[in-house]
Structures are given as structure tokens and as C-alpha cells.
Amino acid sequence: MRETRTLYRATDGGDGLWSGTCWAADREDAEAYLDNPGYGGAELHEREVQVDPELVLDLRTETGVDMSRLAEALVDLGWTDAADPGRVDTAEEIAERWGDRGWLYPWEEDMGIAEALAERYEWMRYTDTFPEGAETWTALRDMED
After folding, report:
1. Which residues, at least 6 apart from 55, have a Cβ–Cβ distance to it below 8 Å?
2. pTM, entire model
3. Domain that holds residue 69
């Protein structure tokens, strides 16, 4: 069953729910992006979206992204690392490799990650570093109504 959520986004690019767009759960967090060159924009958008909780990959932790949960979801989908095709790793090995690479948001480093997640999920949500502790929602599919 879908639930209505209100999400916010500061951008110069409109309020479209396109794959890869990031939205804040709280208006105040989105407002921080009104003056964050390269990441936000001058327009604050508010959207009510219909969300199926079963189609949301929840990666929130107290301090950031749950890399183990992300890696587990990818292993369940049969994903392999584009940097080493054919290599089959455990979720723990994948998460450790991302850490070794210094990746905070692996889906921004390897577009294949978001593409694989979109096979099962519409959204992922995680604890962001800006503003610190913000809950960010990233669309994994184009979802225009």
C-alpha cells in the first residue's frame, strides 16, 4: 500500500521525479541547498509523492550510509562490480572495497549500482552528510505522475 510523503528539493532544474534526483525529508534540510553551489539551486520545490514502503531501500544509520545493507541488496540482485566483471564477492567484501576506495555514496561512483537497484526499488533513503544527519531520498526510477 502506498503512503503519501512530502519531499523537498532545492534546484534550478525543476521539480521532476527523475532517476538520480535527491530529495530531503525535511524542508529545512532542502533549504540548506539554496546556497550550495554545484549541488542545489535557487528554487525550493515541494512534492507529495506516493511511496510503497516495500520499494524503498532504507540505508539510514546514525552516521551515514549502511554500506553492508547496500551491498546485500546488490548481491541479492546478482550485481557484479563493473571494475572487475565476473568477480563474485560477498556483501562484506563489496562494502569493504567501497570503504578502501573512499566511497561515501557508491551509486554516485558507479552508475551500474543505481541501475541494478532500480530493478527492485523505486527509492533509497539514507543519512546524508550535508546538512549533517539529513534524511535524503534518491529516486532510482523516473516517476513522473
Report:
1. 120, 121, 122, 123
2. 0.92
3. 57-117
